[in-house]
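Figure 3 (text version): structure tokens given as input.
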């Protein structure tokens, strides 16, 4: 397989494991890279740049193949020395690409390029993709309404978004939101994308480091079993329909709503505890509508092999029509 994304990242299969808070760690992400895709290590998994640097050492010991680091840019937060140091560490450790997400990355483009790193920016709308292209990023990921995590506030599904982004952009495009198998990969490439990002699908793998109950929740879920929370604080968040998400929506139904008011339900600490204990009702669990397509918990290696085979079946079907 050869696309502008396989060329840009030096990978074999244009499938990227999306950044995942608390889960994007070397023992897992390295397996995606080893299987021919691109794994992503999250900077947010580490409390300090020192810990993050050690994680990259671990990553480099586990794989010599290209991988990505996800850096979350909080809206309204200025880029501090800490982020610039993160980028320098990535440069020193040979990180292939940085994926920024959250707000306009224009003030990081030069630093990322000076460190010799490919800059991918993730957005939920074509207008932001065009701004990122103008700012000089090398590729964009555009995620639709279906996606697990943050789908933005325009509520446009991935079919329209992928095709529209492919038509408007000149730089390589990674499509995301609802893609969970090789048929989705083939569809995205047919629409003009150069690769796909998958989040929800990768959570339900044997090696993803969270309690099996959450993986079974994904397997048992239908495409109707997600909720969109946090719209009241302009930070829409697609999560599994569970007790915690319902509690969040109840709090949101009573104005005024502030982040402080929601914090007891949306806190990351609550997520860390539930991911370990297996209480699937006790945290906000990012999960996309693609959960309805997930029927098994394979190893990462098996998953990547299945995606490739399904892609080939899809292409064969198209060719025979
Ligand atoms: C459990 C989980 C955690 C996520 N955490 C992050 C994150 O920390 N940063 C980020 O940019 N995206 C995050 N995402 C979004 C994914 O990187 C990806 O964009 C999204 O899952 C794609 O949609 P899909 O779930 O339909 O595959 C997360 C997704 C999931 C499922």
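Below: residues designed for each position.
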């Amino acid at each position: 397989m050869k696309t502008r994304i396989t060329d840009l990242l030096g990978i074999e299969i244009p499938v990227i494991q999306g950044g995942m808070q608390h889960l994007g760690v070397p023992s897992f992400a390295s397996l995606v890279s080893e299987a021919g895709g691109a794994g992503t290590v999250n900077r947010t998994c580490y409390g300090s740049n020192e810990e993050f640097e050690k994680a990259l050492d671990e990553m480099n010991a586990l794989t010599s193949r290209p991988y990505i680091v996800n850096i979350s840019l909080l809206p309204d937060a200025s880029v501090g020395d800490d982020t610039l140091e993160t980028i320098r560490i990535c440069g020193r450790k040979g990180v292939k690409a940085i994926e920024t997400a959250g707000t306009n990355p224009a003030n990081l483009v030069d630093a990322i390029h000076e460190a010799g790193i490919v800059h991918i920016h993730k957005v939920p709308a074509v207008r932001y993709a065009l701004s990122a292209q103008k700012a000089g990023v090398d590729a964009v990921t555009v995620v639709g309404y279906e996606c697990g995590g943050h789908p933005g506030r325009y509520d446009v599904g991935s079919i329209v978004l992928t095709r529209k982004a492919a038509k408007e952009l000149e730089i390589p495009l990674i499509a995301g939101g609802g893609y969970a198998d090789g048929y989705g990969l083939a569809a995205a490439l047919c629409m003009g994308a150069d690769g796909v990002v998958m989040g929800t699908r990768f959570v339900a793998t044997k090696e993803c480091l969270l309690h099996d109950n959450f993986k079974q929740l994904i397997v048992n879920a239908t495409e109707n079993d997600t909720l969109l929370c946090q719209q009241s604080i302009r930070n829409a968040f697609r999560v599994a329909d569970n007790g915690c998400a319902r509690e969040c929506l109840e709090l949101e139904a009573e104005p005024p709503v502030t982040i402080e008011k929601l914090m007891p339900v949306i806190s990351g600490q609550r997520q860390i505890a539930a991911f370990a204990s297996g209480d699937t009702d006790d945290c906000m669990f990012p999960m996309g509508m693609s959960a309805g397509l997930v029927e098994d918990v394979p190893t990462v290696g098996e998953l990547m092999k299945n995606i490739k085979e399904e892609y080939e079946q899809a292409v064969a079907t198209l060719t025979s029509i």
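The mean pLDDT is 96.
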